[in-house]
Amino acid sequence: MDIKSLRQEIIAKTIAYHQIKFAREAFIPGKTRINYAGRVFDEKELINAVEASLDFWLTEGRFSEEFSEKIADFLGVEHVLLTNSGSSANLLAFSALTSEKLGDRRLKPGDEVISVAAGFPATVAPIVQYGLVPVFVDVDIPTYNIDPEALEKAISPKTKCIFLAHTLGNPFHLDAVMQLAEKHRLWVIEDNCDALGSKYRGQYTGTFGHISTISFYPAHHITTGEGGAVATNDPQLAKLVRAFRDWGRDCYCAGGENNTCGKRFSQTFGRLPLGYDHKYVYSEVGYNLKMTDWQAAIGSAQIDKLPSFCEKRKANFKKHTGILSKYPQYFILPEATEHADPAWFSFIVTLRDGAPFTRDQLTALLNSRLIETRNLFAGDLTRQPAYLNKDFRIAGKLTNTQTIMHNTFFLGTYPGLTDEMFDYIESVFDEFLTSNPYM
Predict the structure, then answer these.
(1) What tens digit of pLDDT does each residue of 217-242 get?
(2) Is 220 a catalytic residue?
């Protein structure tokens, strides 16, 4: 048997394996766990993963090129660089803005970066790690995004950047943020990890700021297991991101390529001798944060499903709304930012003041009934152990952030949820809210 025929046989058996191994199991109320997130895939992801394994290229290869091009086409951006996680994407986006090649616009230790405390630490960690000062601004409820008026008041002569996530898929007020950034000559990094496929004024999030980031962790809109990406329309920033991602090297050749610039042995850098091999010239203090081709192979199949995944998330959001809107006396339900069309990462709920039960009492009950919940990530980063002794500034008061820390949780909207699961979720809420011991 020749290699081509053998490969075809392996793929055919992979399809058969998928049909048996990953056949959908029946949902049993009270017995089957309802996860807040999870992988949704079919035989195409498995086929691509096997194809990549048979290629055995391992690092960036044909699937990496295909996946990055599909992301760029989807978003309508010029440059997409794959990385090993969304957190790494955030680190690389921020690192790029610290490069000396940016001249007086580079971010330096002591500069201030505006963010929020009611979020995920991966948005703030790079600020601290590079010796800059995070400035925490309160968020709005029920959008859970930064308050634009508070943002403007937080800007000081030291402010050089705005680094914000679109909270749980709900775009922040991009008009206000981008106008302030232009007015004050600030960099904008969009953490788009929870919002791939969301839109603001008909335009995809992740295309407004100078740089944006994506995560492909299994909880997100599409997955490669671990994985992420950085997107930008700025060729200089793209080159800097690549440098920081690839050990800090100045060379931008793709894996397996040589002398793309045509000047590999004819340039001078730093104090190196003339003609030193450009492949081993390091212009930044970088990392190795690349994605493998095996991961990219899965992502290339996943992104074809992204439009349908986004529509399913929106539909699931409406189902949660229908369940909990029956109890307005207890819950503040989420609302989309004006002009936004979110591909919701989750359904976020805040208990009203005076509710006869606590957030923790309700979530304990839900989890005991196998309905997963999550708090809004760190709640308040200024209260987290890692940040207690770090240098940061709080602009104004974090009133809503405190409310979120105590009273807010979210439920899943991911495409794997079924009508039977929503029927069960509704029955559990109805039971708790009509006959629980705290009422």
Answers:
(1) 999 999 999 999 999 999 999 999 99
(2) yes
Selected catalytic residue, list 79, 220, 221, 278: 220
Q: Report the chain's C-alpha Rg in angstroms.
A: 23
Q: Which fold has domain 306-435?
A: Aspartate Aminotransferase, domain 1 (3.90.1150)
Residue type, 278: H
Buried b (16+ CB within 10 A) or exposed e, 42-56: ebbbbbbbbbbeeee
Its CATH class, for the domain covering 50-253+284-303, is alpha beta
Rounded distance between C-alpha atoms, residue 146 and residue 333, angstroms: 17
- Rounded to a whole number of angstroms, the distance between the first and last alpha carbons of the chain is 72
Question: Do the Cβ atoms of 24 and 421 come closer than 8 Å?
Answer: no
What is the enclosing helix (H) or strand (E) of 293?
A: helix 293-302
Tokens of 303: 């992104």
Looking at the DSSP bridge assignments, the partners of residue 341 are 199
CA dist., res. 413 & res. 418, Å (int): 10
**pLDDT tens-digit series, residues 13-59:** 999 999 999 998 999 999 999 999 999 999 999 999 999 999 999 89
Q: Mapping DSSP to helix (H, G, I), strand (E, B) and coil, where does residue 340 land?
A: strand
What are the sequence ranges of the domains in the chain?
A: 50-253+284-303, 254-282, 306-435
Query: Is residue 418 within 8 Å of 33, Cβ to Cβ?
Result: no
